[in-house]
Amino acid sequence: MSEVITPKWCRPKYVEKRYGVKAGKLYTMIARGEVVSVKLTTGTQKKGTRLVEVASFENHLSRLVAAQRSAPTVSPAIVETSKQSATAGATS
User: Fold this and answer.
1) Domain that holds residue 44
2) DSSP 10-41
3) Which of 26, 32, 51 has its CA nearest to residue 40?
4) Which of 67, 64, 52, 65 lies closest to 18, judged by CA?
5) Which of 24, 55, 73, 78 has the fewest CB atoms within 10 Å, counting from its CB?
């Protein structure tokens, strides 16, 4: 069996293919400072090559998983009951 080697830095297309995250979402994470990236250019170039630090992307995913696991969950039945109680109280 061949071993999958994960690079330290990669282009956004790699993240899109490997993790299924669209480029727009990735660039939003970069803009928010949630994922580390660098743009390789020479002095006068406007365009360059964007590289994403894979470890920072994976760490961000881990933080999201931890936050979602620790968030309290509410049963849809409880939410529906609360809505009905609020509506009944408003009509009384």
Assistant:
1) 9-87
2) E-HHHHHHHH---HHHHHHHHHTTSS-EEEE-
3) 51
4) 52
5) 73
